Amino acid sequence: MFISAGRKIQGLTLALCGLLAACVPAPPPGSYRTPQSLDDRIWSVAGERFVTPDTLLQAMTEARFVLLGEVHDNPRHHALEAWAMRALVEKNRRFALVAEMISTDQDKALKLFSETPRDNAATLRLFLDWDNSGWPDWAAYEPIFTAAVRGGVPIMAGNLDRTLLPALHRSGSAAFDDKTRADLALPAALPEAVGPALRDAIQSSHCGALPERVVQAFAEIQFARDAEMTRALMSTPDNALLIAEAEHVRKDRAVPYQLHRLGAHGRVLSIAFMETRPGQSSPTDYDIAAYDYVWFTPAIPRNDPCKPAG
């Protein structure tokens, strides 16, 4: 992880903001069109009502752990995450950024990046070898990391060591050594409270085509990933913000569940950026119960991976 020298500049900026009372940035413009459209509207699951970005931001400032769940290839989600970063910095929140897109084997690269004061994250792309990482284009994520650099926000790895993945894909969590199992507090078997749901979600996301042995291994990897993200979040002395795929921020079986399992203290706020679907204009048409807030956005065009080619 790293801490930018920008914290002093941030302090001066915040002092001026206190005088001007108008420094918190507005969210980037969206595509909200009609009162009937869900696009770019925010739904409070507990409150059963739409809320404003300011209301959501206030809820974020009151939580120790803020979990933002994205669809990885949707640029709108990345833009909203960058807004959340900047807005929390302007609110003078002290927090760390935990990113699913960075693995623990890249900790040394993060440390090297931090050794030189910077005012943007452009070169982090090289330190992380981003172009060969398999993640979406760097341009989508750079504003998020630049907001962290300029705000003096530590950046931390949230994903498993990539060198372990081949063995994990073959053997599931049995591939972990005793130290890793202890560090992540991994149980001998997936808890009954989450195991079946994890297996069902993985099978569904792979079009029902995976052998059961592979489904079990992938479910164990997913559970371990959530545990790694949780460990990173809990290691921060102040507050923490997680950016991950929306499946990882579900309260019923993912990081919020792990925070409870591992005894974390402090409020957890789970926010999903969720793509709308044609003909489904009510929040209750969507799988929203596993989150605290859902920020609806337009979907981006994709081919159906389960549809036969041709």
Which keywords apply here?
Rossmann fold; eight-stranded mixed beta sheet; signal; 310 residues; alpha/beta; lipoprotein; 15% strand; disordered N terminus; single chain
Explain what this protein looks like in three dimensions.
It contains eleven helices and eight strands. The chain has 310 residues and is of the alpha/beta class. The protein has a single domain, classed as Rossmann fold (3-Layer(aba) Sandwich). Strand 1 and strand 2 form a beta hairpin. The radius of gyration is 19 Å and the shape is globular.
- What share of residues are in beta strands? 5-15%
Tally the helices.
11
CATH architecture: 3-Layer(aba) Sandwich
CATH class: Alpha Beta
Relative helix content: 25-40%
The tally of structural domains comes to 1
Mass-distribution shape: globular
The stretches of 5 or more residues where confidence is low (pLDDT under 50) are: 1-16
Protein name: ChaN family lipoprotein
Keywords: Lipoprotein, Signal
Pfam family, one: Cofac_haem_bdg
InterPro entries: Cofac_haem-bd_dom, Fe3_uptake_reg_CjrA_prd
Q: Which SSEs are present, and which pair or pack?
A:
Elements lengths: L5 H15 L21 E3 L4 E3 L1 H9 L3 E6 L4 H16 L4 E9 L3 H8 L9 H4 L10 H13 L4 E5 L5 H7 L6 H6 L11 H11 L6 H23 L4 E7 L9 H7 L6 E8 L17 E5 L13
Parallel strand pairs: 3-6, 3-7, 4-5, 4-6, 7-8
Antiparallel strand pairs: 1-2, 1-8
Short description:
This protein is an alpha/beta fold and about 300 residues long.
